[in-house]
Amino acid sequence: MKLSAMGSIVLLFLLAACGSDASKGWVLGSTYDSDIKTIAIPVVQNATYDREVGYLLTNALIREVETRTPWRVVDETVADTLLEVSIQKVDLKQLSQSRLTQLDQEMAVQLTVDWNWERLDNNTTITGWDGMGTSGMFFPSNPLGEPIELGRLESVQMMARAIVDRMAESW
What we know:
This protein is an alpha/beta fold. It has helices spanning 2-17, 52-68, 148-169; strands at residues 38-40, 45-46, 72-73, 81-97, 104-119, 125-138. Strands 1, 2, 3, 4, 5 and 6 form a 6-stranded mixed sheet that branches. Strand 5 (104-119) and strand 6 (125-138) form a beta hairpin.
């Protein structure tokens, strides 16, 4: 009996110590801005010759926002905010080479994007980043013989995760 009463007092004390302002420490509830409920994510603009990567990044961003945040992805006409992303570069970089065959053993797909997240009610920028980069690795030589798509997909998923992480930090 004494233990449960003591446990209740400790729990009440801990709950009272938590606040509602995330900038001042621990918080009960969401750390996201409650004014923002929806976000529009148009198809990612692509300034490179790698046509598929723009659509992959768009789908990855939608999936990350809907699974990791309280926001819903909706059409731009009814959204609270707009996330605009443009791919600036997609490069292949050799990471290692076989000493015997001189063939590439490890390659990286490097993805560089510019993005901007803004409120649509007053056209103010919430956050953004020019030149954000990620890399996805794949092994093109035997015995693995992985296709470039594996590196591209890893790079795109890492980019979507990094953008959503940065959006969540903006509070």
